[in-house]
Amino acid sequence: MQQASPLIEARGVKVYFPVRKGLFGSIAYVRAVDGVSVAIPRGGILTLLGESGCGKTTLGKTIAGLIKPTAGEILYKGKPINRMRKKEYMVYRRSVQIVHQDPYAALNPTKTVFQTLSFPLKRWKIARSRRELREKVIELLETVGLTPPEDFLNKYPHQLSGGQRQRVVIARAISVNPELIVADEPITMIDVSLRLGILDLLLGLREKLGTAYLFITHDFGAARYFTAKGGGVIAVMYLGKVVEMGPAEAVIHDPLHPYTDILIQAVPEPDPDKMRNAKPIKLRSLDIPSPLNPPKGCKFHTRCPYAWERCEKEEPPLVELKPGHSVACWLKLRR
Ligand SMILES: Nc1ncnc2c1ncn2[C@@H]1O[C@H](COP(=O)(O)OP(=O)(O)OP(=O)(O)O)[C@@H](O)[C@H]1O
Ligand SMILES: [Mg+2]
Fold first, then answer.
1. Structure pTM?
2. Any idea which fold 2-110+156-333 has?
3. How far apart are the first and last CA of the chain?
4. Could you read off the pLDDT of 279-303 as tens digits, one per residue?
5. What is the pLDDT of residue 2?
6. DSSP 8-class letter at 304
7. Ligand 1 pocket check: which of 54, 237, 292 to mutate, most ligand atoms within 8 Å of Cβ?
């Protein structure tokens, strides 16, 4: 049924990048995303959480249609995007907008704020006259909290702070009325004091416009704030795989995977009484294995303090243990 299908779904998505070993060496594959299935409901939030290099950006770009998966498929409202006609495909591409990791690189330094924001409005014929264009750009600037808007129209990116740039990038993303925004580390490059403002802006836009989010972060604190406030789902990624996925509250307060435990422990806690675990979990190794040559079995076994024989040989499937809360860990799956 059309209504029942999620807004966006990734089914068994793999993205392998070919790389040559040495100048004349053989081709090897970086398994950036290695079999991920996730879904984002209309107006919902899915947060991808994991260390640098685990494949978050690659999955986000694949969901936004910027990278073709090596295997698996992306569905928009239940329809595989690779089987869409051009017109349908354009609707999907417009519906999914991306806010890239770096607000400094995301804006053209030679374009004013007005030029940057008018481009998509003209391209998608959202504003048809010059007056309409100006009104729309002003409305967008107000929506993202850049006020008075007249002060920003003729500014170039170098005249803006990191937080203001990110607001312009967000204004550009919402200008075409997307149903999903892929927000890739939207606060990482911004001053700490401005971070909550950006997260609250994104959550406010969801209230106002019903936008769904694929929120990407390596920061557990940001994931907790954004996802719990928005009542969303957190998917914890490790070396191209989802190792745990569930409602924010459940993943935060009742994590099932040892890796999630470790991410939680890495969050500084000012009140020692509030430390969730008295005994810190010690990693077996601090090195993250290469996605060019990931470990066999459970990919986390080389670092997991609880790993046993089975973990080295067999890869655990992602299994739903509690309603909506899944884990891929033999520790939890053995009977
Ligand atoms: N175009 C590419 N060619 C080859 N390897 C790539 C390419 N893009 C990404 N990779 C590799 O794929 C893996 C996943 O990268 P990705 O950028 O998706 O990770 P990430 O989780 O977003 O990391 P970060 O937190 O640093 O942004 C990394 O090992 C990266 O080096
Ligand atoms: Mg990234």
1. 0.93
2. Rossmann fold (3.40.50)
3. 36
4. 677 788 778 898 899 999 999 999 9
5. 45
6. -
7. 54
